[in-house]
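Methods — Computational structure assignment.
A single polypeptide chain was analysed. Its primary sequence is given first, followed by the predicted tertiary structure written as structure tokens.
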Amino acid sequence: MSIYTGPVFEMAREQFNVVSDYIGIPVEDRDRLLLPKRAVAVAIPVHMDNGRECVFEGFRVQHHLTLGPTKGGTRFSPTLDVGEVAALAVWMSWKCALCGLPYGGAKGGVTCDPYKLSRRELEAVSRRYMQEMIPFVGPHTDVMAPDMGTNEQVMAWFMDTYSMYQGKTVTEIVTGKPVSAGGTEGRREATGRGVAHLVGRAMERLQMNPGGATAIVQGFGNVGSVTALALAERGVKILGVSDHTAAYYDRNGLDLASLQRHVGEHGVLAGWSTEALFDPGELLVQPCDVLVPAAVEQVITGENAGRLRCRILAEGANGPTTPQADRVLAGRRDEIFVIPDILCNAGGVVVSYFEWVQDLQQFFWDEQEVLSRLAKVLDRAFTRVMARVDSDHVPHRDAALAIGVQKVRDAKKIRGLFP
């Protein structure tokens, strides 16, 4: 029996086993690489606005601390469970190793719907969660960051709560904070900008002209909206966008400025238009040059992978493509260029690393320096993945995962097993 169950963790396990077969990791050595070092579950009692007391469940999974502290987001979601959290921690480990960051992967969160909480209730949940996590986290143990359902404000509450217990300001305990509270320039846009940058690298490799290209973005939250704007700045026409409330498609291109204003006012895409409304399930299979799944896991499946009509699949979300879909896409390698999630959405953790370094040194960079350093890290990772693809003739995901897994494996081997 294992606490790590569910479709998302099984997906991470299957990906790991495929790569382990590819790079020759013995079966008896795999559990130490895959299974998390630590999982914490806590109760979060909160006084609600209606006078009642509600207890939420909170989790934090730390995958490994072999290369340094763990690093990962904190997700507030009504469907969150420990298996999903563990899978996200595992993927973060391979992502950090691929990008050369001195971290292991972590992930955490609270099973709640943040959009149904008042601001006071959200603050109470955030602060109590961090309070319960204090024995298990720290600037050199586990550094939290935002994820779905959390934002800069939640990170500021996390940082303040931890600091109150330490008796001093500890900005380096979380990343993704407001700049005014020790955050870094460029962090909020980092993941989306990174996706667009890597799409540009893929276009260079495929000799595509961004000025004549089209894109569809599934998910119009922080990552998806920034990606859409960054692609549009490169000359790419955005044909379709969606979130959990609505999907829109127009072969002549959508008005991104109007969409941004609407989401800024209402928080969701619903209500923006009636003429451009589209079937969310069919949006992913419309013809385009670039398809960006930037929402949740497991949206590219064995059923729809054969129907995709994109040239580049840029995985802005974590785990958007199932192993069954990967097998379909492996047969379409000449048609679809996949930028796997642990590379494609790495911009966020890279700039989070920059924020942590700046907080530790109390020496801050301007946005231009942050973006320049981000591009260098992503370019290096992209080059390494493509070199592996070219030398071993393997799918892009296998190449990226192999680099990350091998680095962690080598570090564990050289450090040995204590005691």
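Note: The chain has two domains: 36-181, 190-344.
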